[in-house]
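Retro notes - structure team

What went well: the batch runner handled both jobs without manual restarts.
What didn't: labels got mixed up in the shared folder, which is why I'm recording both outputs here explicitly, each with its sequence directly above its tokens.

Job 1
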Amino acid sequence: MILQSKEVKRLIIYFIFDKQGIVDDYITYMLKDLKNNATEIAVVCNGMLTPESRKKLEEVTPIIMVRENKGLDVWAYKSVLDYYGWEKLCKYDEVIMMNYTIMGPIYPLKEMFEKMDAKDLDFWGITKYHEYKEGDPFGTIVYGYIPEHIQSHFIAVRSRMLRSIEFQEYWNNMQQINDYREAVGCHEAIFTRKFSEAGFLWDVYADMGEGYNNHPILCATRQMLEEKRCPIFKRRSFFQDYTNIINDTMGESAYEAYEYIDKYTDYDVNMIWDNILRLENQADIKKNMQLNYVIDERNGKDISEILGKRKIALVLHFYFTELADYCLHYMKSLPKEADIYVTVGDEQKKKIIEETFSELPNKVEVILIENRGRDVSALLVGTKKFIMDYDYVCFVHDKKVVQLKPETIGAGFSYKCFENLLPTKEFVENVLDTFERNPRIGLLTPPPPCHGDYYITLGMEWGLNYKVTKKLAEKLNLTVPISREKEPIAPLGTMFWFRPQAMKLLFEKDWEYKDFPPEPNKVDGTLLHAIERIYSYVVQQEGYYPGWIFSSHGAAMEITNLNYMLRGLNTSIFKAGPGAGKYEEVARNMQKTFIEWRMCRSALGYTEGSIIQAKLYLKTDAGYSEEHTVSVENETDENIYAYKGLEKFGSVSEIRWDPGEKSGIIIKALDVKVTMFNEKVLEFSSKDAITNGMMLKDEMIFLGPDPQLYFKLPEKIPVKNIVIETDVIDHITADRAEELYKKLRGKNILRRIKNKLLR
């Protein structure tokens, strides 16, 4: 059917879902162009809609339906089709069902409609997914594989098909859709084949052709936009699971698409940032958008114009007196117009800095602060009176790690931070130019360390700090997504360049020194570690993004190190493990191998260490130490661990319980009773614990070795005894593993557990 009339009667059903009920500008931008090509637009929203958002939609169309968030887009379309009724629908030349998952247009939609109007078709779309014969990853497709199909973000149906018994029966008898798997398997993946086999003609507007890629709008986005003049792109392009990208591309898809949209079209890319920064996880955005800034340290930019209109500062927290000259070396990289603030804890250090830094041409101000909260309070308390006066700031501290041996490991971490932040004057000039040219940058931090003992940081960026970070996020009223399974793009060395405006929310909390824990501090799991990770989420909440920064030679070392480590892992896996393949296959096979290995070990009753010997650590004024540790053996079936005579250790502020050293244990029904010196009894459960395990309903599962549970006491007081009663599964039998697998199958948490097993 060719649409020859100049006045095509076209209804567009536009579906929206937003968990906050917000209609972002990219939606109204799309709707306004659609309005130029439609007789009528009906907007259907699952869930909720804010009054402001409803008003924005009413500027485009009066037909707005807000419905219960059930059935995804499929039942949203059905609800509008039912509302109109077939008699009225059949009076339209064309009905289009489309949704919010696409952005654009980058070209006027009139161009697309005119081309497709001239084609003899019964239904059509903008893009298609090519046939995938290797099975059904959703487990819901009747054909057992994914057939070639029009992607459901835009499907147009013309009157011959609208009037057909097949089409009307399809929607009249549409099954209830409960999840994404069913939406794909019971509608999107089968719709095209079903109606093609019923004798209806179809086509798509833009495609790269069979064999190039089965999902070109996501994996060949720039080619689709530039070569095929596809007017739309998927919002998911900028935050999708990176495995989808690294399997089929080098990782360039989102980067190249964004560059083309920004440089060669009139589309305002702020509409992209406004949406994805509000709703998506920063780890996904960072990977897809390649937010890595490699800065030249030899050839600087002329930044006289920047220095004329922007205020620049550096804040240094100084603690180790022997590192004054070391710090001075890096301070010399700053332009003379930059102000330098140094926070110190006593007059001696103040005098050392004033003498050492006297040769600098910069304004240098030394600020005496309390020795509480370390470098974190130095920034948040010591500078709060003036920090918002500046446009761009670098924050560093005289990093020295003494707990790791040899000390070159810690020195290497310090080198990595400073050399990727302040190596030369030219580098700093280029950093300032980068901030100026990229107004969405809020924070640039060196990547996390991965050498020596720091290797575990890759994959364990949260450490024991997820819960405490989440609590802080709640106090700050952050709404951006924070996930235990996705790493924070955070300055784990607490050294970074930032835009104070992007940190406004954090500084507005008006921190005081008393907010921070006194010394000595734990090495993990404190407020300090939470703030270290919250920086990047505060930046995102304010509408900016965090990224990684490298000097040229810093990037070269990073590439060498990562390549060396990955090659070492691959060599072991390929020769002693399940064998070679592409990344996804290798990772999946290793996960399977680890799970099978653990199941086999457990089936044989094999354990490492013993759960019957559990250690209790008491935190006193001296912190945690082996001298303040008690071990008990549980040789009964009651699973009761009683620790007595604890008053000899003095006042206790926190306890740590280690149920053995091995991995793969499960704890249920945890009950901790702490009898204080004054006979007061405190009770704790698993909900009160800070732990390196994970909760699954009523079970605490420890996949890694050395399980640990921390319980903070409300006051510091001598403790008489502690009784811990819990049901401990000290090794996962084959039957238990299979039961656990069935419980988790089909849930995202299963994939997360497998990932943790791999780590």
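Job 2
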Amino acid sequence: MKKYNLFKVLAITVFVAWLLTLFIPASYTDYSGNIVTDSVAAVGVWSLLSNLSISISYFNSIAIFLIAVACFYAVMNKLEVYKNFVNKVASLFENKSGLLVTITIIVFGVLACLVSDPMILIAFMPFIYQVMKALEIDKKVILSSTIVATLIGAMCGIYNSTLFSLLSLEVNTLLLVKIIVLVLALAVLIFFVAPRKLKVQKTAKKEVKKPSAKQESKKSSVKKVATKASANKEDKSVKKVNKTIYAVLTILLGTLGINKFYAGKIKAGILSIVFCWTLIPTILSIAEFITILTEKSDKEGKIPVTSKRRTNVLFGTSLVLFVLFTLGSIIPWESLFNITIFSDFNSFLSEIKIGDYAVFSNIIGAPIVTDSTGYASGVINAFGSFTMLDVAIFLLIITAVIALCSKIKFNDFIATETEGIKKVLPIAITAMLISIVLVIMVTSGVATTIANWIISITDGFNIATATLSSMVGSVLTSDFYYFASTVGVVFTSVVSNADLYGVIGFIMQSIYYLMMIFAPTSVALIIGLYYLNIPFGKWFKYIWKVLLALLIIIVVASIIIFALV
């Protein structure tokens, strides 16, 4: 019923957008950069339905990404070590859920401020949801701690290629202002969200009767006997290897998986060879080597091929590598820090040849390389320039690797992935099709007309009209690129003073992501509401105070910036 209400809101939004095209004339930018208003270019019913195919063809990357995330966590949830990790994290924050909410808000907010595409942070959100669900945290708080915190971070994003290109801005433009606004905005969110959870937790907490000392003692003795019997049984059946030989092979030849072959783990050895160029097997081998040294061997100097402690260490190391790689792949290193090592690495990979045969380009894929004329060719972006589709491909590959290493049978793997896709498919399709509003507004030219009308209310630049036009334009064009190409071009045609472009860029960026916190056309919000089964009406009643506070912060900051220009 809740999801039905969400679909009703989406349908009403599409219907209103369609009605606007029947009466509002189209506008476009001519070659001189001036806004020209033409006649009404209505989107007929036939065109409305045909626009569905445009939405699917242009905005399918979000669907593929969500499916890839679902497949990844479907496999992770099959692993006992992952389940134990989730439970352990949850236990660390037992009776400290307010602290967890605060930390989550800060982490997602700061990361979104640095990365090129904040939507990719959705890859980490299912894990946070599982932890918070175990602590019985309210779903609206979970949504605020993840999606909303991410959108707030994007409000103050340090680098935005679309905006920087449109207004000729630089990374250091209003950087201090953005940092101050980010701190204030995150503080507002924490103030409104964290105390509510503490109140919910207090009323929901149930008193649990503790077992007596006698019962505990009996339980402990039974557990020790069972553990001892289990250990004796395992000693006879578990395969063992010589500790010294295994340790030497791990530290010296672990990159090529020779230690895995020695231990009889053929699949793991092959995977180490295949991915040795990434240095991931090397890092895992170092972590495993340290763990091996601290393990006790038997009388014959042997240790088990697999141990719980070693598995936990390798899982923890792999988890850290996964997080660092995913985050590192979407931080624009070259644009923010002038680090060219990753684009240089792409050039190196493209030049690996045996004779005239390009090994990496033909087998893996052609890395994107820019020549001296500025022409870019290839399919694999440099590290730090990954798109949503690139991260989706990475997740699908890593999912298959985890399944192989975990010895998940092929039929079980297919069944697990199918179940995961079934759960996320409605969300993926909904997120993709909501872009039909964007398609209607952009193809009809209505969004540009409305923005021009609002901005033209006053002569020259005005913070009130700039804010209002950004608010309306954000809802009508829910993708920042198209928002900038419809509303941004109106600003550049009306405002000739380049000194004001900094404040214009600040208003456009901050207002856009502010609106995405509650706009029915916000892809991030729709994903969160659908996944957590939260009605749109209840969400707005919950978050409106945060929205109002954030709007005041943005407007005040804009006024101060404008006064100082």
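One thing worth noting from job 2: Strands lie at 25-29, 35-40, 240-242, 302-304, 353-354, 357-358, 369-370, 376-377.
We'll revisit the folder naming next retro.
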